[in-house]
Amino acid sequence: MGGHWPTFARAARNAGRRDRGRARHSRLPQPRQHDHFWHRRLCRHFLLYVLFKFNEKANPTPSRTTHHTLLEVVWTVVPILILIVIAVPSFKLLYLQYSYPKPDLTIKAIGNTWFWEHEYPDHDVRVTSNVLRDEDLLRAELGQEEFNRRYGNLTGVQLSRQLYNDAQPLWAKLGQPRLLAVDNEIAVPVNKVVHVLVTANDVIHSWTIPSFGTKVDAVPGRITATWFKAEQPGVYYGQCSELCGKDHAFMPIAVRVVSEEAFNQWVEAAKARDWERARSILHAATEQPDAAQVAAAGSNTAQN
Fold this sequence. Notes:
The chain is an alpha+beta fold.
């Protein structure tokens, strides 16, 4: 078992890098998450200090004190005072947790098995996002006839391995992370407050984008909500974070943050269902020239 730990460590490290994608420069709308991180780190280091400082080896002759009235009063009263001090701001934080700023844009995210739909109720736009797979890129690159000739006789693990190997140069050219890229990204304007209403059509999913500090369950028959404000243009990736069936791992979310002008252009293209133009607008807005390749692959996704 020990020999597998380096592999697990590399996989975890690479997964973390992939999830961040192009969002590594973003600032979270929940700045207190930074404080929470350091609080947890302080508690962990204190616990480790106590474990190593006051063990049998470090203290071969322990104290035999049975009681100390003043000390017992202190260690009872002090924690009570600490809890009171913590409780007062906690009540405010609990209130603020469900007090959202006024939205500039509202999106309804709908989880399905196994893809996401996003509605823009104020703009009459509905976007269906499917994961881009290795075979989608290869079909777009080779054409259906050549794709069938190369891979038609392969099955199972052999087919998956060959598709994976042959698609690697295409993913590098595309400049998007494998298993996080989608055929149709959603768009939001930069520096705008976005409310996200989250639900599901079938089973429980979870709409999660780590760079925005958002993780909300999508429950059938119920509306949950979250919000974010993206302060840097770019593409931000997330995934379904609730085990929802066999293709749970293939439910990515891709949000492209663009200027308000580019967002308005994208809305007009999306209203007209001109997805190729919509992709081109988003990629041009963030200086990614490979929209045509995504469009071709996205077309194959829709057809399959």
